[in-house]
Specification:
Helix content: 25-40%
Strand content: 15-25%
Distance between the termini: 33 Å
Shape: elongated
Structural class: alpha+beta
Radius of gyration: 21 Å
Order of helices and strands: EHEHEHEEEHEHEE
Strand order of the largest sheet: 4-5-6-9-8-7
Number of helices: 5
């Protein structure tokens, strides 16, 4: 059985906005060159319905989805099932996975660009042995763009960044301060569909999977942090919109 469906935002009637969400879902649930297959828990492909070819059928489909009937083509998701009557406990697990992916993709499409803070997770290891560190997202309830749970494996983008990182961690350790980083927004075109919000800077190749951050507890004691470094994202272990 082949099932064609669309995921839409609540109260959204704009076909273009719905199409953006289908693209985001397809990106999140497919394997591309360089993607770690183990980080794609669910695979669903994307297809499209041409407005001229599908005519009244597509118009009715848009009405059922809650969208305005217009001349726009429609992006759709497509899943295949060998046995549509099969049932077991895994259905609930698949449903929860799909829900998390949808929430993240809604964040990708709708979140505006704000700064984000991360904190070093665990103890620091000598960079001569392992240059990578784990950072955890500092969740906030007051701003929608801060309502995430994220765990990321990163490393300094170059030797200079690694030295800056090492000095910062050591300085915070001596002063008994948390090792906190705050993102610095890269330059971007606000008309672009993929603005550097949290989801995009962690996942998209547009930003070469690099995050520019400033050192919140500046090792030189400045009230306004004067030093920045660039992280290369190795792996996103967890990313959930709460």
């Amino acid at each position: 059985m082949i099932n064609t469906f669309v995921v839409n935002f609540r109260d959204n009637k704009d076909v273009k906005q719905a199409n953006k969400l289908q693209v985001a879902l397809s990106d999140a649930m497919n394997i591309f060159v360089g993607t770690e297959a183990c980080r794609v828990p669910l695979m669903i492909m994307q297809s499209g319905l041409d407005a001229k070819k599908h005519g009244e059928g597509l118009e009715e489909f848009k009405r059922r989805v809650g969208l305005l009937v217009d001349d726009e083509n429609m992006n759709v998701m497509v899943n295949c099932c060998m046995n549509p009557w099969q049932w077991n406990e895994s259905i609930f697990a698949i449903g929860e996975l799909f829900r998390r992916i949808v929430l993240n993709c809604i964040g990708r499409v709708e979140d505006s660009v704000v700064n984000h803070r991360f904190i070093l997770s665990g103890s620091f290891v000598d960079i001569s042995k392992d240059k990578s560190i784990y950072i955890e997202y500092l969740t906030g309830a007051d701003v929608p763009e801060h309502q995430y749970q994220v765990s990321v494996k990163v490393e300094g983008d170059c030797d200079a960044d690694q030295r800056t990182l090492s000095n910062y961690i050591n300085s915070c350790s001596i002063k008994d301060l948390p090792v906190v980083f705050e993102t610095v927004t890269p330059s971007y075109d606000d008309k672009d569909d993929n603005v550097p919000n949290l989801y995009n800077i962690l996942h998209l190749q547009d930003w070469k999977q690099k995050i520019c951050v400033k050192l919140v507890n500046d090792p030189d004691g400045n009230i306004i942090p004067s030093k920045c470094l660039t992280f290369h994202v190795i792996n996103v272990w967890t990313c959930h919109l709460l």
